[in-house]
Amino acid sequence: MDDNILLEVSNLTKSFQGFVANENLNLKFRKNEINCIIGPNGAGKTTFISLISGHLQPTKGDIVFKNQSINKLDVMKRAELGIARKFQTPSVFSNLTVLENLELAILKKKQSSSLKETVNRTLELIKLENEKNTLSQNLSHGQRQWLEIGLLLGIDAELLLIDEPTAGMTESETAATSNLIKDLAKNYNKTVIIIEHDIAFIKDLNSNIIVLHLGKLFAQGNYKDISNNSEVKDIYLGNEK
Amino acid sequence: MFKNNSYHFIIIFGLLALVPLFFKGYTVFILPQYILFGILAMSLAFIWGNAGILSFGQASFFAIGGYAFGLLLKFYPEINHFFLGSLIILFLGFVIAAITGYFLFSAGVKSTYFVLATLALSILTEQLAVTKSNLTGGWNGLFVDRINITIGDFILVDLGGDFKIFYLILAIALLSYLALNFLEKNKIGKVLKGIRENEDRMLALGYKTSFYKTLAFGISGAFAALAGALYATHANFISPSVAGVLFSTEVVVWVAIGGRYSLLGAFAGGIIVSFLSNYLSTITPEYWQLFLGIVFIITIIFFKDGLAGIFKSNLKIRNSNG
Q1: Which residue in B151, B137, B133 sits closest to B232, CA to CA?
Q2: What's the topology of domain A1-72+192-241?
Q3: Which of B191, B193, B205, B260 best probes binding to A when mutated, by most A CB atoms within 10 angstroms?
Q4: Which ipTM did the prediction report?
Q5: Domain ranges in chain A?
Q6: What is the pLDDT of residues B6-39, one digit of tens each?
Q7: Model pTM?
Q8: Alpha-carbon dihedral sign for residues A182, A29, A65, A63
Q9: A chain contacts of residue B201, beta-carbon cutoff 8 Å
Q10: Do residues B38 and B270 lie in contact, with contact meaning Cβ atoms separated by under 8 Å?
Q11: Closest chain B C-alpha to A233 CA, distance in angstroms
């Protein structure tokens, strides 16, 4: 496997009692790149990242992360290897403060002695410095999304799987999220796979785009390639406008 | 605040330390047993409050500690029972609880099913205590000698009277509180709270949650067993009833009333409710359990965080007014 490739899936297939959610997907994800997965509802986007995170097991095919097959590893072991996932509905620790949330994530990899410095750096990155003592249940929806991204950063994961990061966000929050993700890829060596419906956000990220349709790879390329693809417009982009 | 501020623990332990100076006789004799129930209650609060794991098996570990200590005294009279005996009991309680926890947590047993499994453990322990009567004395119970603190053949502290053993048990309760509080404030405590709040998220962060739950259950079993051992030597007796369903339920009631999110609340709950049970049973032998049941129901409905929660909210109101 090319050293520049962090994740590769081959013939990845997942079916649920006859319904094929992902079918023979062959994809490579380069290090420090942002990848957006788009497609109509039911295209198999969430199934795909669930297969990568270990929340689902593939029916067929292989997933190789850092030159190692991870098919048989569970969620916890994949997280230890460096795969972290942000869920569609923010999954944070609601009755703990922002600070306590981040401490929990950071403690996984670091000793208590270096905790404070890492917490402060992460708080600054996710722009929640002023909310560190707020219970996470009292944060806005957008802030909870950032906090969850902060948790992924806390465990120092290399591959971030981010499911609909801008859902429920205001325009300014969306712009800040775009900047955060670009910063993570460029300055913090993160490879990011995002599921997103917001085309303006995807355009702003200037990322590699993967279009799934009925569980299959439909198209792949940059924003210009995809937006000029009439078939993609027919199945997805056209409907979004 | 009951949970975080150190002056509450100083007040509680300070008041308890004053008791033998102002009271004599039965009060000084019985209070150490309530303090041991307080340690037992803290052992449950450690896992219930922090990790959200409700166990009906604490009485089982308490009884195992009591019987094991009694048998150590009986069959190994030559060992140092205070130092080595206590360590053996702590280790035994930890191992039995950890093995139980390992099988239950690895199999994904949680919530109601965990309650039922630990309840079964208490019933099993009670039945073993009854059926292995050649060792345990069956329903008649096992007589356990009062220990002394010794070094070799030299008696360092004679614990024969009520006064010295009172302070010894109070000191052990203090050390147990400090140890559990230390664990609660450090990594294991934080991880347990994470598990209580969102176990799936903890798994997705790479935490092996079953390991932490097993470790916590083992620690809680160790303290429950130590309390049982000291109870047996203080009361000079241990019987199957301390492993039974009724006693298991009482432990849960103490912690619910005292406050499961606070070690001190649970400790106070263990002492106050045991005292109340004893007092009520003398003035109304037929209805004392009914009164206790009513207090329990009121607590569950109106004060979910128990006595500690009431203190905490009163302090919050006072602080915001001040």
Answers
A1: B137
A2: Rossmann fold (3.40.50)
A3: B205
A4: 0.88
A5: 1-72+192-241
A6: 788 899 999 999 999 999 899 999 999 999 999 9
A7: 0.90
A8: positive
A9: 91-93, 151
A10: yes
A11: 35
